[in-house]
From TrEMBL:
This is Diguanylate cyclase (GGDEF)-like protein. Keywords: Membrane, Transmembrane, Transmembrane helix. Residues 23-278 form the EAL domain. It comes from Catenuloplanes niger. It comes from the Bacteria.
Length: 280
């Protein structure tokens, strides 16, 4: 029995080695990508319901690999987190997004989005210098703290005391804090008792079936009530149809994001006093 166990253990180790090799190669690829300028950002509108006026945009990272072409962030962001490269990549994303937002204010004036949202991973938030980095980037680019929204997931905020202290420091400075994929974690409501939050991004899974009577609609209703009750802003994520937008509005949602209003694009065009141009 001992032998068989040993055999299994050996094979298991070999598998882990293979995985480690794949990860190491992916990590090296990501570093080359960052140094070689293979990343760029796209921006997706966050709109006010019901008219669809753009109030904000979310920056999302894209990687064009020289051989593989488009690689989804759902694939490479977790690898960047594991290898630690997300700290450098995330700094580049933050700087790029803030600088871009400032150029929009100059170019579009009142038609520019009021805010820019940037995704920040657990690993970045756990860095003791993160709040200082944000402050430095704001002063370099000239973006005001209230114009920046930092999107965090619950796992990020629970990553020990440092993460929470960083969130508190940013919030004191006036940076807005959003909880991403809200409602999908194990402790979404618990977090609201301790973490200074401004925005709840209600996960797409609740939005998908909001037009059908059933559990998802009930939860979507409960979440907007929690948000309103706490004086927070709620953004419905992943809105794909006019029916969903109408139903969300009826439930009390005033902010939404999704393909129905606009896909993420590298160079959005903002039209004064008009709904997002992609809207039919
Ligand atoms: P997320 O932060 O929840 O971002 C929303 C995702 O939903 C984006 O996918 C967006 O393109 C997609 N989406 C928006 N509207 C719709 C819709 O109506 N229908 C559908 N099916 N999808 C919609 P994306 O850009 O592929 O990003 C996936 C995830 O990768 C993000 O989820 C986020 O967790 C991570 N990510 C993306 N960019 C960054 C970044 O700059 N930094 C970090 N740390 N993570 C990022
Ligand atoms: Ca997000
Ligand atoms: Ca989300
Ligand atoms: Ca997500």
């Amino acid at each position: 029995a001992k032998r068989a166990g040993g055999g299994r253990h050996l094979r298991y180790t070999a598998d882990l080695d293979a995985q480690a090799t794949v990860r190491a190669r992916a990590g090296a690829d990501l570093r080359t990508a960052l140094e070689g300028g293979q990343f760029h950002l796209v921006y997706q509108p966050i709109v006010e319901l019901p008219e669809g006026r753009i109030v904000s945009v979310e920056a999302l990272v894209r990687w064009t690999h020289p051989e593989r072409g488009f690689v989804s962030p759902a694939e490479f962001v977790p690898i960047a987190e594991e290898t630690g490269l997300i700290v450098e990549l995330g700094e580049w994303i933050l700087r790029q997004a803030c600088a871009q937002a400032v150029t929009w204010f100059a170019e579009y004036g009142a038609a520019a989005p009021q805010r820019i949202s940037v995704n920040v991973s657990a690993r970045q938030l756990a860095e003791p210098g993160f709040a200082g980095l944000v402050v430095a980037v704001l002063s370099e680019t000239g973006l005001r703290p209230e114009q920046l929204v930092v999107e965090l997931t619950e796992t990020a905020v629970f990553d020990g005391g440092q993460a929470l202290r960083t969130v508190e420091a940013l919030h004191r400075r006036g940076v807005r804090i959003a909880l991403d994929d809200f409602g999908t974690g194990h402790s979404s409501l618990t977090l609201l008792q301790t973490v200074p939050v401004d925005v709840l991004k209600v996960d797409k899974s609740f939005v998908d079936k909001v037009t059908m009577a059933g559990r998802h609609a009930v939860i979507a209703t409960a979440l907007i009530q929690v948000s309103d009750g706490l004086g927070l802003q709620a953004v419905a994520e992943g809105v794909e149809t006019a029916e969903q937008a109408d139903e969300l509005y009826r439930l009390g949602y005033r902010l939404a994001q999704g393909y129905h209003f606009g896909k993420p694009v590298p160079q959005p065009v903002f039209v004064p006093d008009a709904a997002y141009s992609a809207r039919p």
